[in-house]
Specification:
With 508 residues, this protein is α+β, with helices and mostly antiparallel strands. The protein contains 25 helices and 13 strands. It has a seven-stranded mixed sheet with strand order 3-4-5-2-1-8-9. Strands 6-7 form a two-stranded antiparallel sheet. It has a two-stranded parallel ribbon with strand order 10-11. Strand 3 and strand 4 form a beta hairpin. The longest helix is centred in the C-terminal third of the chain and has 25 residues.
Length: 508
């Protein structure tokens, strides 16, 4: 039996009490990071000694350093060096023993290598300058580690550890910002975000992933420069949005995406929801309802690594929760008596979901799944009013297909009423529906429902060649199978011949 979990000393702090325990937290950060750096693989220490012997500097940089301070191991080992690419190549070939290296982008000074399973990427110190119309920098080699760190996005990513000495290099006080769980830019935020607008998306993504808050001046700069995000490619925006959605705190990231004005340019359907009152009047607006549904969907995911259905973090489930009500603004109607309705918002929402996900260059399979869940998310509510026939239950399962477990969780997450009695009633109704699905599945293997006769057998019995008539016969038998369950071959043949005779009479 395990006891209660012990909070990590570097867990996010309350913004209202940011300075509480900062000294102690900073001490924890220093102690933890030093321990993590000493525990680096011997292959890394050897690599550092080789660069040092050749007269060059080598430093672990960026995310791996931040993660070490947070007590997390990192599979990515990114280094920066004073060596030029050709000098790095020489050392890497010797370090790998077999000379196996790869060119990650020689024009940017990046080479990679692997030894005994330890993969590294090494980039020559760089400086960057930007054209205001593009986020692609003009890159030149730099001369100092501190200069290289100044071009990083946030101070918590602008720290480095010299190898092999393990000296922490922190010119912008990123360690203190990590201790305070604050995001701040190394240079002025206006310059940083004007140079590379994608950093604004990265800021809200880190809020979701790490639970940090954005420093006030940095947040103000994002709000002022939000429109600059439009010069960033849809692919890069999508990558950041996906990472945000898969973070530990997606709601916090989405709220900032809206509050700072970025969503108006990359996901306008989300802030649009704040204008709409939901039909039950149980929430301030549909926007808040959507965020609550997302929170509840996350809570319903299976634990990571469990192998259970919808194992967290589940992108399809989270996106379906995010998009499930985006059809409401377009379908809002004011009925007599002050009632607000959103009829067919699930159908309209599915179309809008496809459109937005296509614009964000999501792959077709993910788009299909999310849009289908949006389309089906209200299907259960008829069951709560009046239990379905077995036929209706079969159709529910068949329509959900491989998304049934996602639909279960999305439907449950969509119950956000504060009326406890109604909430319990809906939960009991869905418990009953799931139980009936399980019973039918055990009886019929419902997830593989097929007619009692396949196409070849239909052609044999009716003595007809492949064609439209075979498909019509197959559909008719599938409808009977859905309505009545397994028929058995003898009855299926009788039903097929009866249907065929009626069809022939109609066609005479």
């Amino acid at each position: 039996m395990t006891g209660p979990s012990v909070p990590d000393p570097l867990d996010p702090v309350d913004p209202a009490d940011e300075t509480a325990g900062t000294t102690e937290r900073l001490a924890v950060a220093r102690t933890r990071s030093a321990s993590m750096f000493r525990a680096l693989p011997e292959e890394i220490h050897d690599l550092g000694r080789r660069f040092e012997a050749a007269g060059f500097e080598l430093a672990l940089v960026g995310g791996p350093v931040r993660d070490a301070v947070l007590g997390r191991s990192s599979a990515d080992l990114d280094f920066t060096t004073s060596a030029r690419p050709e000098e790095t190549e020489t050392i890497l070939r010797q370090w790998t023993h077999d000379g196996a290296i790869w060119d990650m982008g020689r024009e940017f000074g990046t080479l990679g290598g692997v030894r005994d399973g330890v993969r590294v990427e090494i980039t020559t110190y760089r400086t960057e300058s930007y054209d205001p119309t593009s986020r692609k920098p003009q890159v030149a080699y730099g001369d100092t580690l501190e200069g290289d760190l100044s071009r990083r996005d946030f101070t918590v990513n602008a720290m480095a550890v010299r190898i092999p000495s393990l000296e922490l290099v922190d010119p912008f006080d990123g360690l203190s910002d990590l201790a305070r769980t604050v995001l701040r830019t190394p240079v002025t935020p206006e310059q940083s975000f004007d140079d590379d607008p994608l950093r604004m998306m990265r800021a809200v993504r880190f809020v979701s992933q790490l639970g940090f808050r954005i420093e006030d001046a940095t947040a103000d700069a994002i709000e002022a420069l939000a429109q600059r995000i439009t010069i960033v490619s849809s692919e890069r925006v999508r990558e950041e949005l996906v990472k945000l959605m898969l973070g530990a705190h997606p709601r916090g990231g989405l709220e900032l995406l809206v509050e700072l004005g970025l969503a108006a340019h990359v996901l306008p359907e989300l802030p649009a929801l704040s204008l709409e009152i939901d039909e039950h009047h149980h929430h301030k607006d549909v926007y808040q309802h959507t965020l609550t549904v997302l929170d509840q969907a996350v809570d319903l995911e299976s634990a990571a690594g469990s192998g259970g259905p919808c194992e967290g973090p589940d992108l399809v489930l989270r996106l379906a929760a995010l998009f499930h009500d985006i059809g409401k603004p377009a379908t809002r109607r004011f009925e007599p008596g002050g009632v607000v309705t959103f009829r067919f918002h699930e159908t309209v929402g599915a179309k809008l979901t496809k459109k937005r996900m296509k614009a964000l260059t999501f792959d077709k399979d993910t788009t299909r799944k999310v849009a289908r869940l949006v389309e089906l998310h209200l299907r259960f509510h008829g069951y709560a009013d009046e239990p379905w026939t077995d036929s209706a239950v079969r159709r529910y399962v068949t329509d959900a297909g491989d998304l049934l477990q996602h639909l279960h969780r999305l439907t449950r997450a969509d119950v956000t009423t504060r009326n406890r009695r109604k909430s319990r009633q809906l939960a009991r109704a869905y418990d009953e529906l799931e139980a009936r699905i399980d019973e039918l599945a055990a009886q019929e293997e419902i997830d593989r429902i097929r007619p009692d006769l396949d196409g070849n057998r239909i052609m044999e019995i009716l003595r007809i060649p492949p064609g439209r008539a075979v498909g019509e016969a197959y559909t008719h038998l599938l409808e009977l199978r859905m309505e009545h369950g397994p028929l058995g071959e003898e009855r299926a043949i009788e039903e097929l011949l009866t249907w065929w005779e009626a069809r022939e009479r109609e066609n005479r």
